[in-house]
Structures are given as structure tokens and as C-alpha cells.
Amino acid sequence: MTKSKLEYIWLDGYKPTQSLRGKTKVVSDFSGKLEDCEVWSFDGSSTQQAEGGSSDCLLKPVFICPDPSRIGDSYIVMCEVLNSDKTPHVSNGRATIDDDDDDFWFGFEQEYVLQDIETGKPVGFPNKGYPGPQGPYYCSVGAENAVAREMVEEHLELCLQCGLNVEGVNAEVMMGQWEYQIFSKGAQDAGDQIWVSRYLLERIGEKYGIKVDWHCKPIKGDWNGSGMHANFSNTTLRTCGSKEVYETICKAFAPRVKEHIDVYGADNDQRLTGLHETQRIDQFSYGISDRGASIRIPIFTVEHGWKGWLEDRRPASNADPYKVAAEIIRTVKTADVPATA
Question: Which residue intervals define the domain GS beta-grasp in the entry (predicted)?
């Protein structure tokens, strides 16, 4: 009889930013398949998802991958949270995604800052004052500018061993700030992979004694904040070959600024100031290769005959990718695309 460890992970009900929770289920002779993961339960009164008098919430497995960081036959199981009657819990952003046929593809650029627990500052920052201005840290190499690479590399390797579709990693513009990118042909799957990758990074941080700071503006002042840029496409964007169609879809975002900002992460007003490659939080713009716009039209898309994708640069690093994807899909579907598309 073979024993397997299944780490069920889910999002709690904390506001304004949800956190990951997890607990291990030991099972016998497990097949490794998602369909053989049982629905489990947890105490929602301890995660701000239920009252003590009726505390059971359900965990519905939706994504599974191997967990090579644990000894023995081990897996990570991403779960949706359901009420006891099996309806989606109000904290369940994944259930709000309306894309049953996976027509929408998403590539998220996840930025984060690694923080020294003892000093409370980003790794590499001096105990007093600040390091030199941003500039030399982006895509840097060398001990003077690139810090905590060992932890970043371990995270990348572990993600790849788990089967997550990480497409790249790089040091970012602030000392101690890094980024990785994940792409998936499906909004829910893209969100699943981002959350599992965040879980893995947090767990690796336990070993190094380093906190992963997801806040979008962890250091005030003349520093870039941390985002989670959302690159997205559907069949229309991938095949239309029409500048007019692209502009029509971009314009559909203009009247829905509030709806997007509401789910694009807490404290995003500290990051979306109109400076540091951002548009102001209360304004909307789009442009070709414009990193100061709300939505950037990549030069790749233009050079390939208006067939490609768009990048919404507003989501913060602490945003829920499920809710971000759901809102983008909702807006794109409102666009009155010309019949020629």
C-alpha cells in the first residue's frame, strides 16, 4: 500500500487581500489524477469564511501537480472554496470566470519583493537609508545589484518540475524585486498556476527566512511598484488582422475603469500614479508600445498584422488573477466588434 501526500491549498476570506492556506491529506494508492481527489472540508471560522456555529466549508479540487519538494509521493491540489450546500463561496473568484471553452488565453507577469524579516526591508537594502536609485537592478547580474538569486532560481526550478508553464524570470527595477511570467490557454488554468506558483514561493521563503511581499508599493518614494500585468487574447484578437477591432476592444475598457480597479488589488492607488510606467488610477488610455498607458498594444501585435494580444498594465502584484481574468473577459465581451472581424 503506497501512501501519498496531497497538499490541499485554497484562498481564505481575508479582505482586502486574500491569503493562501493549505493542509495535507494522506491517502492510499493515489492515482495522481484530479478526478480522484476527494472533496474535503475545513474550518471556515478560522479563515473568515464562516461563523463558528456553522463553520464547515468545502474544498473542491480544480488543479493538481506533482510536488517534488516533499519526500515521497506528493502533490499540490488547488481548490475552490464552496459553501456547505456546494455553491461557490463569496470569496471564490475562480467561479466568476465566464469562459467555458477556454477561448481566452492569459499570460500574467507576476512581480514581487523579497523582504528581510529582521530589518523589514527588501533584501539588499542597507539597515539605514536606501540603496542607489533604481536603474542598475533591472535584469542585473552581480552581487552588487542582484540579490537572493539562489531563492529565485530554486523557485523557478521547482515550478518547472511541477509542470507549471513559467515562460521566464528576471530581476526587476528595484533592489530585491523580481518577476516571473506564466502563460496558459485558459483563464482558470492561468489563475490556478499563478496561485500554485505563489504558494511555492512562500514555502521556499520559509527555508530562507525571507518574506515574500506581494504589496504593490512596498517602498514609498521614487521606486517602481509591483504589478501583475495581464496579457490576454481571444480568437478575435489572435486572428482579426484589424486595427479597428483592436481599438474597439480597447475603448470598451474606458467606461469600466471602476469595475476593473475594484478587483485589481489593494492599495493600487499608491502604484497607479501616472509615474513609473503607469497611467493614473482614475484615468484610462491605450497605445502602441506605451508602458505608461492602461492598456498597451504590443509592437508584436502590430508587426504581425494586428494579430496577437493586449496587455492590461493596471493589475497589482497582490491582485487575484481569477478576478482579474473574469473582469477582462466581461469587458471584452461587451465590445461591439465590427462585423468585418
Answer: 4-86
H/E stretch holding 26 = strand 20-28
The domain made up of 105-332 is a member of CATH 3.20.20.150: no
**Set of cell numbers at residue 27:** 491517502
Q: What is the pLDDT of residues 149-197, one digit of tens each?
A: 999 999 999 999 999 999 999 999 999 999 999 999 999 999 999 999 9
> Tens of pLDDT along 256-288?
999 999 999 999 999 998 786 788 999 999 999
Q: Determine if residue 202 is left, alpha or beta; phi over 0 gives left, psi from -120 to 50 gives alpha, anything else beta.
A: alpha
Which cell numbers in the block locate residue 232? 490576454
The answer to whether 185 and 238 have CB atoms below 8 angstroms apart is no
| CA distance linking residue 197 with residue 317, whole number of Å | 13
Domain residue ranges in the chain: 3-92, 105-332
Residue 341 confidence (pLDDT) above 80: no
pLDDT band at 83 (very low <50, low <70, confident <90, very high): very high
d(Cα 242, Cα 331) in Å, to the nearest integer? 19
Q: What is the pLDDT of residue 54?
A: 82
Cell numbers for 290, please give them: 506605451
306 and 243 in contact (C-beta within 8 Å)? yes
The C-alpha cell that represents 216 in the structure block: 504593490
pLDDT of residue 127: 87
Q: Is the dihedral of CA 95, 97, 103, 105 positive or negative?
A: negative
In angstroms, the Cα distances linking 221 to 134, 204, 217, 282 are 11, 29, 9, 20
187-208 helix and 149-162 helix, angle to the nearest 10 degrees: 140
- C-beta separation of 91 from 81 below 8 A: yes
What is the pTM (predicted TM-score) of this model? 0.96
182 and 197 in contact (C-beta within 8 Å)? yes
d(CA 221, CA 173): 13
Query: 214's torsion region: left (phi>0), alpha (psi -120 to 50) or beta?
Result: alpha
Residue type for position 153: E
The class that CATH gives domain 3-92 is alpha beta
